[in-house]
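Lab notebook, design round three. We kept the backbone fixed and only want residue identities now. Task for the bench partner: fill in a sequence for the structure below.
Input structure tokens:
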């Protein structure tokens, strides 16, 4: 079967190295990271070099260094699937070619929570030979609609693989990076989640002129605009309970984002390469409560 081959290709592991970097956060003395948090050490993801640029010497965001990072084996494998999906969709719909750099603010960080478990990633930039998407530059609030749409396309692809993605409209702490982690259980659209709701509201405004307040509250106008998007994008099923249906909405939104088109004229639909992809690792955690308390980071 085609799908089986595709899945094995997706899951082949990337390169391995050694090291740790963080957002400059320190851990409480009582916190001890589990061994699995650092079981993979690597400086590339599936062949794309990982860089760091958050210095304290005035060169932040300009001088980059190829560095090694750590995370759990399961999380690393998920990053490989994510980066392959991103390469494919950005190339097919946006013409992005030759991904040559990922800039991260950190993976494993010695503190409680998903970073401390080696199950979180802070994304500052993805660069190709012919373009870049840079959350670090706060592109979610750019005055250039194409820049906003591409930021949201990247955001959407991340959400196809990670239940919790925190973006520039989630809160001020995430204005300069996309955070993704392993918490929260199965991937789906959760209307009670601020993270999911502000993302959907941004997409509906950027591609459908919905004019929604980006307030994190799944209100009637948001529901109506979301229903309209599903009609325009040809997404059936139930994205609130079905991983495959939510992933497909995200794929369609990302295709419009990379292509820079309105939902009224989306690119022709494709079969979702992840249609039959089953999460081997679904982590039920306290992220829902943590999100409510504003503790995700
Ligand atoms: Zn983070």
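Proposed sequence:
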């Amino acid at each position: 079967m085609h799908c089986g081959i595709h899945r094995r290709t997706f899951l082949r592991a990337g390169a391995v190295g050694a090291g740790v970097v963080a957002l400059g956060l320190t851990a409480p003395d009582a916190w001890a990271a589990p061994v699995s948090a650092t079981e993979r050490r690597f400086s590339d993801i599936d062949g794309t070099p990982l860089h760091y640029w958050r210095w304290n010497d005035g060169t932040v965001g300009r001088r980059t260094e190829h560095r090694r990072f750590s995370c759990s084996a399961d999380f690393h494998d998920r990053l490989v699937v994510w980066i392959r999906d991103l390469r494919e969709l950005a190339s097919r719909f946006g013409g992005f070619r030759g991904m040559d750099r990922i800039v991260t603010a950190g993976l494993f960080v010695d503190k409680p929570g998903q970073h401390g478990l080696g199950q979180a990633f802070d994304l500052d930039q993805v660069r190709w030979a012919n373009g870049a998407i840079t959350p670090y530059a706060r592109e979610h609030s750019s005055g250039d609609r194409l820049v906003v749409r591409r930021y949201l396309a990247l955001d959407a692809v991340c959400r196809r693989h990670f239940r919790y993605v925190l973006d520039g409209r989630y809160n001020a702490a995430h204005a300069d990076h996309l955070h993704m982690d392993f918490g929260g259980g199965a991937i789906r659209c959760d209307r009670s989640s601020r993270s999911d709701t502000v993302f959907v509201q941004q997409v509906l405004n950027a591609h459908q002129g919905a004019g929604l307040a980006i307030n994190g509250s799944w209100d009637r106008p948001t529901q109506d605009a979301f229903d309209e998007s599903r009609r325009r994008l040809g997404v059936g099923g139930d994205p609130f309970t079905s991983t495959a249906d939510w992933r497909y909405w995200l794929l369609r939104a990302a295709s419009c984002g990379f292509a820079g088109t309105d939902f009224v004229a989306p690119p022709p639909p494709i079969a979702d390469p992840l249609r039959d992809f089953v999460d081997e690792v679904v982590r039920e955690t306290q992220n829902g409560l943590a999100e409510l308390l504003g503790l995700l980071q």
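Keep this in mind before ordering anything: The chain has one domain: 2-292.
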